[in-house]
Design a protein that fits this description.
alpha/beta, three-stranded antiparallel beta sheet, 8 strands, binds BIS(adenosine)-5'-pentaphosphate
Length: 216
């Protein structure tokens, strides 16, 4: 099963992806995580990528599509894409790639949330650099048991460079201009399912399970 998670920044794509992976065994690919991994190289290209991410814009389609081709050629199971595609060009190129591989998109989950609600989730976000689990130090139900340490693997939690309100607002604007048109694109293809992402994360997951189980 190939799934796309489509949503504004901080809607809960990463949080829900981990839950989906543990229930359905899909491979989770986050283009944001792949890009953050590439920043560790500290070369000219990573400097360019960091600059783009820190002003809330989209990294070039050429770089993203190269990353996607690499991961797809080495992944046999179904994939859940988190943060890809992010514009119409990426969506069309992804379809072409899937057609070449004899595959298709099964489901696009659109996590609906208001800008105000998403903005509240940004500042307290912490991520485990080892297992990827996402927390929020400012939302009671999403807090780690011990401050700044992962509950699962006890690794120190990290704070993202782009997690502040001013960059969030730029990321949101980019989302509205570039990514939001994909809602209509996938709705017309009959692939889009809307999920209320403003609820508590277990309730959001419950809605996702209902949709996914109806397709299996
Ligand atoms: P990316 O890493 O994809 O960031 P994003 O889209 O802004 O999404 P986030 O990771 O911020 O949020 P999320 O929806 O995963 O929420 P999370 O589960 O963490 O991209 C970063 C940058 O990389 C982009 O700006 C761009 O520059 C570049 N990029 C990436 N992909 C690209 C592409 N395809 N093309 C071009 N450029 C690309 O949750 C957020 C917080 O809320 C957490 O603290 C969590 O604990 C909490 N939370 C989650 N769910 C709930 C809930 N239900 N209730 C309460 N709190 C919750």
């Amino acid at each position: 099963m190939n799934i796309i998670l489509l949503a504004p920044p901080a809607a809960g794509k990463g949080t829900q992806s981990l839950k989906i992976v543990s229930k359905y065994g899909l491979t989770h690919i986050s283009t944001g995580d792949l890009l953050r991994e590439s920043l560790k190289r500290h070369d000219e290209l990573s400097d360019q990528i960091r600059e783009v991410m820190n002003r809330g814009a989209l990294v070039s389609d050429e770089i993203i599509l190269r990353l996607i081709e690499d991961v797809m050629s080495s992944t046999e199971h179904g994939i859940i894409f988190d943060g890809f595609p992010r514009n119409l060009n990426q969506a069309k190129k992804y379809e072409e790639l899937l057609t070449k591989l004899g595959q298709s998109i099964d489901l696009v989950l659109y996590l609906e949330i208001s800008k105000e609600e998403a903005e509240k989730r940004i500042v307290g976000r912490r991520t485990c650099s080892n297992c990827g689990k996402v927390y929020n130090t400012m939302i009671e139900r999403e807090k780690p048991l011990h401050e700044e340490t992962c509950d699962v693997c006890e690794t120190a939690l990290t704070h993202r460079e782009d997690d502040n309100v001013s960059v969030f607002r730029l990321r949101y604007e980019t989302y509205m201009n570039e990514t939001e048109p994909l809602i209509h694109f996938y709705e017309e293809k009959g692939l889009l399912k809307r999920i209320d992402a403003s609820l508590e994360s277990e309730e959001v997951f419950h809605s996702i399970v209902e949709v996914m189980d109806s397709l299996i």
